[in-house]
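Design job #97: recover the sequence.
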């Protein structure tokens, strides 16, 4: 399976897992993904990008159904972020979770 296809597949898995179980599913899915998939060098970056993409899909879906601009403005103002800062932080959070979990779960390379 190509790197791009694995990333998109993990994005779909992350979006579904987050919708079903919440944010803590992201590192758990990353660990399972890395441990069950064949070992390859780009698994941690692929998990990080896939998790960010999955949450971007969820944020976009929520934005289509509600006042996302107003929420980003108000909550971002409380956190002293620009309007684009809150969506960016929202997408970076799962990327860091999945990347760190995947990096920690990778098996050691053979010697």
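Job complete. Output follows.
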């Amino acid at each position: 399976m190509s790197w791009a296809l694995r990333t998109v597949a993990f994005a779909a898995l992350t979006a579904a897992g987050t919708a079903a179980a919440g944010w803590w599913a992201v590192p758990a899915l990353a660990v399972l993904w890395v441990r069950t998939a064949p070992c390859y060098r780009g698994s941690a970056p692929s998990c990080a990008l896939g998790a960010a993409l999955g949450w971007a899909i969820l944020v976009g879906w929520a934005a289509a159904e509600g006042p996302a601009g107003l929420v980003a403005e108000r909550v971002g103002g409380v956190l002293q972020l620009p309007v684009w800062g809150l969506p960016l932080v929202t997408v970076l959070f799962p990327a860091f979770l999945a990347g760190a979990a995947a990096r920690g779960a990778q098996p050691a390379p053979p010697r």
